[in-house]
Write a sequence for this structure.
């Protein structure tokens, strides 16, 4: 578990991607006692050389200069900076790299990185969608070798897809609400060189639909690819109370997919899996879903048996979801 105050406080304006996302998550982890069962790892700043594994100097310079000017500035579509942004962005990427290094060295079994800004919409030269630098992509390049990225954020990880679209050494598997954001991104037809697997899902998919998608597409895609390391773009905006998505996933749905990812990592790559917080904007549900994920990764007993918000959402597998998952399986040749 990796948290740093400096990534929490920047861009403190009325907006979905706000400091309270981390503050409330941290508070719940602490009060539940779960934090005591984890190793806390301090974040470090990524170096410019590390960012250059993925990003252009033009983008780095634009973010650094805007952050130094200190006011609220747009640096890309739906991507803003303020005073402190440059440091926060370096810590988010560097925090992930630190976690990846410790897991690669078997110092930690696995890790969850709780930082902001998120990264999966950022491409090599473009900040967008609250994302400035693509931490997961930098980490995949940093760790090297065969890396699988599982992206369960409700939005499509277009930046990650673009960065690795012609790179067969990185498998990118994305579960997302069909055509939510960015528009036109994440279709079945976008397959790159074959190592891009998109699973666009209908609104209202729910827990059983995500579990079905894991069984039918994510797991076989990872088994076929045989990664040496698994990275997770863990966006909890598929949560049932999140205003940015309509996917009806409960805390138990997140617990289940995190648990399945851990099992896959144990089967395929010595348990080496590191998750990085992407989206998740419900201040009620993000902390709870993240806690469930952390408990699953750490092998801890669940703090509750049912979603504490007790939302009245469908958790059973619907026909439309089944068809969407089967289509993704077929498109991926699985
Ligand atoms: Zn998202």
């Amino acid at each position: 578990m990796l948290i740093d105050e400096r990534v929490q406080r920047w861009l403190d304006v009325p907006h979905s991607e706000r400091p309270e996302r981390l503050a409330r998550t941290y508070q719940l982890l602490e009060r539940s006692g779960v934090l005591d069962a984890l190793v806390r790892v301090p974040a470090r700043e990524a170096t410019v050389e590390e960012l250059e594994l993925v990003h252009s100097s033009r983008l780095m310079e634009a973010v650094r200069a805007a952050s130094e000017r200190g006011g609220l500035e747009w640096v890309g579509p739906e991507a803003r900076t303020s005073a402190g942004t440059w440091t926060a962005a370096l810590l988010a990427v560097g925090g992930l790299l630190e976690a990846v290094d410790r897991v690669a060295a078997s110092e930690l079994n696995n890790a969850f990185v709780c930082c902001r800004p998120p990264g999966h919409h950022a491409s090599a030269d473009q900040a967008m969608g609250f994302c400035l630098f693509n931490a997961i992509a930098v980490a995949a390049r940093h760790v090297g070798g065969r890396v699988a990225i599982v992206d369960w954020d409700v939005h499509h990880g277009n930046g990650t897809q673009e960065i690795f679209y012609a790179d067969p050494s990185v498998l990118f598997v994305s579960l997302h609400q069909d055509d939510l954001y960015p528009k036109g991104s994440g279709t079945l037809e976008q397959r790159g060189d074959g190592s891009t697997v998109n699973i666009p899902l209908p609104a209202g998919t729910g827990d059983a639909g995500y579990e079905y998608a894991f069984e039918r597409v994510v797991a076989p895609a990872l088994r076929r690819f045989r990664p040496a390391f698994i990275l997770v773009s863990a966006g909890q905006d598929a949560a049932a109370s999140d205003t940015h998505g309509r996917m009806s996933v409960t805390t138990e749905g997140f617990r289940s997919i995190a648990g399945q990812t851990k099992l896959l990592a144990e089967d395929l790559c010595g348990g080496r899996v590191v998750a990085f917080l992407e989206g998740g904007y419900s201040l009620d549900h993000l902390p709870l879903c993240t806690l469930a994920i952390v408990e699953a990764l750490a092998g801890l007993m669940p703090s509750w048996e049912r979603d504490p918000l007790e939302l009245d959402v469908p958790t059973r597998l619907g026909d439309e979801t089944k068809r969407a998952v089967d289509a993704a399986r077929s498109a991926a040749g699985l």
